[in-house]
Amino acid sequence: MVDLVRTILLFAYCYGLFVGVFNFEVDWLTGVANASRRTTIYAAVHNTSLITLLIWLCLRHNSLISELGTARYLHEYFFLVMSAVRIFAVLLSLLTRWYQRCRFIRMWNQILALVRDRPQVIRGRWYRRSIILKFVSCLLSDTLHTISDVSAQRKRITADLIIKFSLLATLTTIFNVIVCQYYLAVVQMIGLYKILLQDLRCLVREAECTCSMGNRRGGVYSIQCCSLADQLDLIAERHYTLRNRLEEMSELFQIQSLSMSLVYFFSTMGSIYFSLCSILYNSTGFGSTYWGLLLIVLSTAFFYMDSWVSINIGFYIRDQQDELVRVLSARTLFSRELDNRLEAAFENFQLQLANNRNEFYVMGLFKMERSRLIAMLSSVITHSMVLVQWEIQNKGS
Fold first, then answer.
1. What integer pLDDT is reported at residue 170 of this predicted model?
2. How buried is 292 (Cβ within 10 angstroms: 0-12 exposed, 13-18 middle, 19+ buried)?
3. What φ, ψ does residue 337 adopt, rounded to 5°?
4. Cα within 13 Å of Cα(193), Cβ side
5. DSSP reduced 3-state for 26
6. Cβ(225)–Cβ(210) below 8 Å
7. Closest by CA position to 4, among listed 102, 107, 132
8. What single-letter DSSP state applies at residue 313?
């Protein structure tokens, strides 16, 4: 029977190789990453050709720069700005993947080693559901947006426009593959945290049962407490390793996170604005039929769904850490005190959680948290309303 998740991951890996995102090779049987010569040469040729094509399109007479000077409508200016932001984000991300390639390979193999120690991560229902959800949302979002873009310009399709659309579609695909790599790494770390939480809950329940033992002077009680203390120290050591991997990931994906923030901010605002222009400007070729409006609604909805899935996954790490603190705090509800060594192990773990909380900053500019995400969404809505109001006021001019 075909494993759907494994097939999705294989497709994503092969597609990442094809579009030049992977500049290292992964042995599909073992999962080990290494910098092979053929993959390096192919990725270098692909990225160089992409940059050369971009330079050629920018220097020719009807380039994006010249279109900026001949644009007549606000939506044309905004589309050009969105294209420039997406190009900048993709090129910046690709550049970092070259000069940080050794760190990416090392991080890949380190996460692989952690997952091998806990293979139930990839067998978990949450892990499989997360991978399928991301694949479906990303595939539908890209497909519907491509169809929508082609439909919007169907009255003036030319060879030059096809080249530009193909280039922008390639850049969008590269960006999405980069985001999927980040998503996969975070999903695996969350799966490791979930297993850590399960082990900690079992240990706390055993500690509570041990606490209720009547004979506390016997050897059974001391042996049980020492065994639980050793197990708790191992759990704390596993958490320390996970925290170190998360810190390295946060530092490694700094530029990718900045690129994601810029692209999602402008793309979300552009989706709202594009939907309005699709209705206002029928003469420019934007869809005005019921099927066209349905396509716009579906493409926008799946784009928001894909964006939310990609962004919200990062907050689950903080949720898992908060849950660790909550589970450990249940020790204070025990009816009696525990053995001194077990008490010390609990206190040390609590101090470790309190002093080493993961805070993820994007290039030192702002901290990623849900309140910040709400502020960004509010800013997107505000700026979209300004663009919509300006468009309505100047429609007739």
1. 80
2. middle
3. -75, 155
4. 24
5. strand
6. yes
7. 132
8. T
> Which of 132, 186, 133, 167 lies closest to 19, judged by CA?
167
Residue 292: band (very low, low, confident or very high) from pLDDT cuts 50, 70, 90: low
What does the pLDDT look like over 201-254, one tens digit per residue? 988 888 878 777 666 666 677 778 788 888 888 988 988 888 888 888 877 877
DSSP summary character for residue 253: T
CB atoms within 10 A of CB 14: 11
- Cα dihedral sign, 308-314-318-319: positive
- Looking at this protein, which amino acid is placed at residue 341? R
Query: What element of type H or E holds 33?
Result: strand 33-34
Which distant-in-sequence residues (6+ apart) come within 8 Å of 188 by Cβ?
111, 114, 115, 121, 122, 127
Contacts of 236 (CB under 8 A, 6+ apart): 345, 348, 349, 352
Task: Answer yes or no: are the C-beta atoms of 89 and 262 closer than 8 Å.
Answer: yes
- Separation CA 168–CA 1 (nearest Å): 37
Question: Under a CB-based contact definition with an 8 Å cutoff, are residues 23 and 96 in contact?
Answer: no
pLDDT-based confidence at residue 96 (cuts at 50, 70, 90): confident
Q: How many residues does the chain have?
A: 397
Note the helical H segments in the chain: 4-18, 37-59, 64-70, 74-99, 101-117, 120-123, 125-152, 159-211, 219-252, 254-280, 290-312, 315-329, 340-355, 370-393
> DSSP code of 118?
S
Query: Treating both helix axes as pointing N-terminal to C-terminal, what angle do 254-280 and 159-211 enclose, rounded to 10 degrees?
Result: 130
pLDDT digits over 162-215, tens only? Answer: 777 777 778 878 888 888 888 888 899 888 999 999 988 988 888 878 777 666
Contact by Cβ (8 Å): 137, 202: no
C-alpha distances out from residue 205 to 45, 217, 352, Å:
57, 21, 21
CB contact set of 238 (below 8 Å; sequence gap of 6+): 196
Burial classification of residue 268, based on how many CB atoms lie within 10 Å of its CB (0-12 exposed, 13-18 middle, 19 or more buried): buried
What is the pTM (predicted TM-score) of this model? 0.82
- In angstroms, what is the C-alpha Rg of the chain? 26
Distance CA 60, CA 64 (A): 9
